[in-house]
Amino acid sequence: MQLTIRYFGMLAEATAITEEQLQTEACSVSQLLEKLKIQYPKLSGKDFKVAINQQLVAHNHIINTEAEVALLPPFAGG
Amino acid sequence: MEKKKPKNVFIQGAISPEFIGTSIAKHQTKTSIGAHNIFLGQVRADEIDGKVITAINYTAYDEMANQKFYEIRETTFAKFDLTCMHIYHSLGTVKAGEICLFVFVSSPRRKVVFEALEYVVEAIKADVPVFGKEIFEDQTHQWKQNS
Fold first, then answer.
1. What is the reported pTM?
2. Which residue in chain A has the smallest CA separation from B141?
3. For the segment B31-40, what is each residue's pLDDT rounded down to a tens digit?
C-alpha cells in the first residue's frame, strides 16, 4: 500500500522534506516510525504526535490502508 | 446563533489593530449581545541565552488545523450560550509586539464570555497543529512549544 508521509515544523527541518510517498506493508505506527528514524536519524529523540488522515492516533495503531500520515511536533499556536 | 462550515481561520502575517476594530464595529448591529470578550495573542520578545526573539514564523497542518478549529467552535457553542464567535490565527512571519491570535466571543451576558473565551484559547493551544519557529536577531532560530 502507498502512504503519503508529511513532516511539519522541526520535523520537516530534520528530514529536509515536507512530504514523500512510501510503499509499505501493513504495520503499526511504531514500526513505521522505526523505519523513518533509520532513514532520517535526526528524527530520533524528537517529541512528536502522529495523525492519520488528520486524526491523532496512538503508536500501536495499525495502518492497513492507503493513508496520509502526518508527523507533528509540539503544537505552538497562539 | 451563528454556526458555519469549516472555514479558513488563517491570516497571512500579523493581525492588524484595524482588522480587530472593524470586527468589533461589525457587531454593533447585533443588539441581542450584551457582552464581548476578546483574547489577543502577542509575540513576546523573550531573551534566551542572551539572544532576543524578533519574530515567530508560523506554519500549520492547514487541513487538520481548520478541522480542529471547527470542532472547537462546535464544542464551544454546545457548551456555552454564545451569540457568535470568531477565531483568526496568523501564518508566516509575525514580529515581536504584533498580534498572532484573535479570539472574539459574544453573548447576551458577561459571565458566559469569560468562561467561553478561556475554554477556546486553551483548546486552541492544546489541540491545533500550528508550529512556531522563533527567530532571533542574528537569524538563528528555535522551535516554540506551548506550555
1. 0.93
2. A10
3. 999 999 999 9
